[in-house]
Every structure is written in structure tokens, then in C-alpha cells.
Amino acid sequence: MVNGCKFSVIKSKLLTVFGVAIAIAIAFIACHNLQLANQHSVSTAITIKLSGWGGSPVEQKLLTQVLQDFEAQHQNIKVKYEVISDQYMDVIKTRLVGEAAPDVFYLDALEAPFLMSQNVLEPLDNYITPEFDLGDFEETLINSFKYQNKIYGLPKDYSTLALFYNKKAFATVGLNEPPTTWEELRSYSKQLTGKLNKYGFGEIPELARQVYKIKAFDGKIVDQNGYGTFASEASLKGLQLVIDQYQKDRSSAQKSDVGTNSGSEMFGQNKVAMVIEGNWAIPYLTETFPQIEFATAQVPTINDKKGTMVFTVAYVMNKQTQHKAEAWELISYLTGKAGMEKWTGTGFALPTRKSVAKNLGYDQDTLRSPLVAGVDYATPWQVSKYPGAIVNNFENQFISALLGQQSLKQAMVQAENAANEQIRAMD
């Protein structure tokens, strides 16, 4: 019995050792399989290519952080972000034709009508769920990316225009409040010229800064068929305001007159006391010209009508992408409430969702509230399927009229005829 008991003990120990060995082997195999599974999940993660143009280094860093947050929440999706620095739309159009376009890319509202009409973008209506809360977006901005009752893009951010004015310059001539009408602006501009600043007002003769003036007199840039109509008598009334202030009052200047590259720089360098700019001017001025004490106000009314412009950019999906579900996941995150709050939280851009603007307090922000208020009555910067023909011809001739080289009417008729001739050739 003693020997039998001893054998039982030995047998028990052997079984224990054998069991431990099996347990170790099972654990090793399980761990190895887990590593293989992880490697497999990484290797099978879908890569989405996102293309956009370059902004400031701070903006680029911010977007990179938002994309990293997206990847952390979507382990099966990787985002390859590409910055196209030069000729952005030419590159995108070339790639779309060659079927090599990115899965998701930026699209400016100005360029949207052409691409939406070419059947190269994926309509997003079937992806949008009630939970996404489409009604939270500013309607004006969503409408900029609608074509034949379908939504082709979701706006990522926007800016309107507001009046920026130098508080010290105003105090110097005894002005306490910003002008509320264009007549007041011209009067203020005369008073401010030659005092603390060389000129009272900085004028940007680009079409993007003139549309609301034309619209104030019921003028239009293009007709329902996309052909230019900016030489009409109504349109000329709005543009004449600019000519008179520049030529008769001599109280306004354009950037080339004072050796600067932008309206913001004119203002920051104390060359002008007032300028009409967008949200982008706020971080630029506070960082580059911290000594400038400035405030903002809504653009003064013209012909008793409120007016401003709104500029917006959307994320759109390439219709040829092989990864539509994943592309939508990216778009819906970037334009969703949480993603948008991260993107616009620093103030570099204004959120297109009303709830996000409210959460961030931009509707109450001293500098940004006039910009936010303007979106309700702003005119979208969007002219036709062929914006280049309209914009280039207008600007070439309008500057000529501004400099007194020809009459305003002569310049606009010439520009309109040339633009429409180009559009007919492309239609």
C-alpha cells in the first residue's frame, strides 16, 4: 500500500507538470494567434485619401490632430492626408478625369456648381441619417452644395465679411461707434484719411468683395443660365460707390497703392483705418500685429439693405471611390458635432453647425459675433459653372475703371461681353 501510495503521488505530480505544460502551450498559441489577428486587422485597415489645400501651419497641425482622433475611434480606417499646394482645382479635375482622385477632398463653393454637374461626386443624401442632424447646419451653407435637389458636400467651416476698424484711429477723430450705413462709412473714411492712417478705408476690388454691393440695388452677377449680367444699370449703381470713394473722395486705397499684399495687412500696418475682411483676419491681426487695437461690426447697410458675403468649403466624396462607407465615416466625423467642435474650437474657422457655434460662444464673441450674425443674410460666393470667365474678366476691367482708365459702364460692358463669349464656347 505504501508503494501504491508513492506511485499515486508520482503520477499526480506528472499529471500536474503535464497540465501546466499544456496550459503554457495553449496560452502561447492564443497569444500568437492574437498577434496574428492584430497584424491582420492592421494590414486590412482601409486607407482613405483626403486631399486639401494648405492653410497656415497652425491649421495644418490642428487638422492632423483631428484626423488622429478619428483614427483612434475608427481602428479599421487610416487617413492619408495630402496637401496640394499649387493649382488645387486643376490637379483635382485632372485626377478625376484619370480616375486617380482622392476618396474625399475639399471643394470650395465657388467651384462646386461645375463639379456637381459633371457626375463625378457621390450624392450624400442616402448616407445622411436623422441622428446626423442635417438641420443643425446653416441652410445657406448647405444650399451651396446642392444640385438638382441632391446634397453633394457638407460644409466644414465658413466666413462672412465684417467691418474691421482701428479703435485708436476712431478715437483720434472723435468717433465712438462704427458706421452703420455706407454713407456713414464714406463720411468716416474722409475724416480718418490723413490722420493716424494714410487712408480711411482699404478697398479690395475683387468680385468676391463687390457682389453684395451689386445685390443691394437688385443687380445680379449672372442670369439663370449662368451668363454675366453685371453690366446692368442696377449693378453699376453698387459698383459706382467704390469708384466715387476712390476717385472723388480719395479716402480709400487698394493694397497695391500702399505696398501690401492683402486687406488685413493694409489694416495691420496702419495704412488704412477700416477694412472689410473675414474671420481669417482675426488670428492674423492678433498674432502679427498685436499692438493694433481693433473691433468688428456688421458690414454697413447699402440702399437700406443688409449685405455681406459668405465663403465656405465642403468635404465631398469622389464617386469612383472603392471605399464609400469608410469615406462617409470620415466626412460624417469631420462635419459631425464633436469633430467640428475640435476643428473650429481655436477660432481659426467658424463652425457651420449652429449648435457648435453656440457651444463655443461665437455668437456672443466680441470679435466674431458680427461675422456669425451675417450668415443669415449673406450672399454665397458662387457665380456659375464657369466662375473663371466671370471673375477674371470682371476684375481686369473693374480695376481699369477704378484707376480711371475707362468709364465704369464701358469697362463692365467689355468684361461682360468677353465673359459670355468664353462661356458660350465652353457650354
TrEMBL record:
Q: Cite the entry's keywords alphabetically.
A: Membrane, Signal, Transmembrane, Transmembrane helix, Transport
Enumerate the InterPro entries for this protein: SBP
Establish whether keyword Transport is in the entry: yes
Q: Does the keyword Transport apply?
A: yes
Per its UniProt entry, which superkingdom is the organism in? Answer: Bacteria
- UniProt-listed Gene3D superfamilies: Periplasmic binding protein-like II
Q: Which CDD domains match?
A: PBP2_UgpB (cd14748)
> Which spans are transmembrane here?
12-30
Q: Which family would the database say this protein is a member of?
A: Belongs to the bacterial solute-binding protein 1 family.
Instruction: Spell out the PANTHER family in the cross-references.
Output: MALTOSE-BINDING PERIPLASMIC PROTEIN (PTHR30061), MALTOSE_MALTODEXTRIN-BINDING PERIPLASMIC PROTEIN (PTHR30061:SF50)
Would you tell me the protein name for this molecule? ABC transporter substrate-binding protein
